Amino acid sequence: MSLQIKDISKRFNDFAALDGVSLDIEKGEFVALLGPSGSGKTTLLRILAGLEQQDAGQILFNDLDMTGRKLRERQVGFVFQHYALFRHMSVADNIAFGLDVRPRGQRPDKAEIKRRVDELLGLVQLDSLGGRFPSQLSGGQRQRVALARALAIEPSVLLLDEPFGALDAKVRKDLRKWLRRLHDTMGLTSVFVTHDQEEALELADKVVVMNHGRIEQVGSPEEVYHRPGTAFVYEFLGGANRIPCTVEGGRIRVAGTYVAAGQPADFTQGTGIAYVRPEEIVISSEGVPAIVQQIFRASALPRVEVQLADAPVSLDVALPPEFAQMALARGQRISLQFRKLNVLPA
Ligand code: ATP
Question: What's the 219 CA to ligand 1 centre distance in angstroms?
């Protein structure tokens, strides 16, 4: 199912939760809505589900206007952040719920529902746990039951609101991979909300970066990570360093030193902010002078915190494996080269 979001706005009292959001989602795409808390991600997902009505704009499913249509009429599976399983129902009854509540005539018979529940239990790898109650499951298992319940109605569209938010890092990673496979094999169109950039970049075909009820940028994970369109996207993704600089006749000057790095042609003069990722900074024998502040060798991503010698600016510098053994000490003077600086006007 293809989804079209056309100029959607939504206010809560006088607060604009969504302000003219437009987005096209193709059939089979896995889309991440990524943004800080309060940016409007959940509101957009709820409007897609039919749980909330927009004030203006249209939602089209396969070119059909969904305005006024409820969740049940939209053929969507919906998974909330905190599982929201029915505590008094067994796992099997939870999964069957969406089928049990269908009006007579559309409801499969008991044997068919049982067959489908068993199939779904297999799919989410909980074969023997249909008789348990939610309180007897781990967080990851509960989340998979919630997914099975959402899939029971055979949705074309799967909407997920921070589905792995409450789980520990290892379980999250496993479930992510599993969910991506499930999406692919079932031919779903999926939209999920997250504020975790790693999750969005790893899982999605298309990342939609949201801020203050608007879309800042839409692109593949590579595009939004390597070619951020706005300062916000730069700062939200990848923990970029921010360095005040001046641009003089197309040349970039950082703390008194000219640096060689690519620069867009449309900004050749003035004060700017240079954005640079930790892995795009190289410790070198010449360049911008800096002083080592802290060394973090033992972390998963070894890095050094430095301060520019001639400006009160701290930077995070990634230590690639070949530098991991480099003799570095606190207070040591080093020089920095920048592989890629992206300068936006200040
Ligand atoms: P989070 O990551 O914290 O879930 P979000 O990006 O999903 O945030 P939304 O839940 O869409 O953000 O909320 C966007 C804004 O709209 C927030 O400022 C929120 O307080 C407000 N909001 C959401 N629902 C309502 C409501 N029912 N009544 C009033 N304000 C609301």
Answer: 24
Q: Name which of 5, 37, 32 is nearest 19 in CA terms.
A: 5
Distance 43 CA to ligand 1 centre (A): 6
CATH fold of 239-345 reads OB fold (Dihydrolipoamide Acetyltransferase, E2P) (2.40.50)
Report pTM: 0.83
Chain region(s) in the chain for CATH 3.40.50.300: 3-233
- Predicted confidence (pLDDT) per residue in 1-17, tens digit: 999 999 999 999 999 99
Question: Which atom from ligand 1 is nearest to the alpha carbon of 210?
Answer: 6
C-alpha distances in Å from residue 27, one per residue of 32, 63, 67, 81, 249: 14, 12, 20, 24, 47
Pair of tokens at residue 87: 């505590």
Topology at the third CATH level for domain 3-233: Rossmann fold (3.40.50)
Task: Give the amino acid at 91.
Answer: V
Q: In this prediction, does ipTM exceed 0.85?
A: yes
The CA-based diameter of the chain, rounded to the nearest angstrom, is: 78
In sign, the C-alpha dihedral spanning 36, 42, 47, 53 is: negative
| Residue with CA closest to ligand 1 atom 26 | 12
Candidates 43, 45, 53: which one to mutate for ligand 1, based on the most atoms within 8 Å of Cβ?
43
Q: Please give the pLDDT value at position 263.
A: 61
Residue 216 CA to ligand 1 centre (angstroms): 17
Q: Tokens for 99?
A: 């089928």
- Ligand 1 centre to CA of 42 (Å) is 7
What digits encode the pLDDT tens for the residues 94-108?
999 988 888 888 888
What is the tens place of the pLDDT at every residue in 189-234? 999 999 888 899 999 999 999 999 999 999 999 999 888 888 899 8
Residue count of the chain: 346
Are residues 157 and 74 in contact, defined by beta-carbon separation less than 8 angstroms? yes
Rounded CA gap, 91 and 118, in Å? 11
CATH 2.40.50.100 placement within the chain:
239-345
Q: Are 20 and 66 a contacting pair, CB within 8 Å?
A: no
Q: What is the pLDDT of residue 58?
A: 96
Tokens of 338: 């920048």
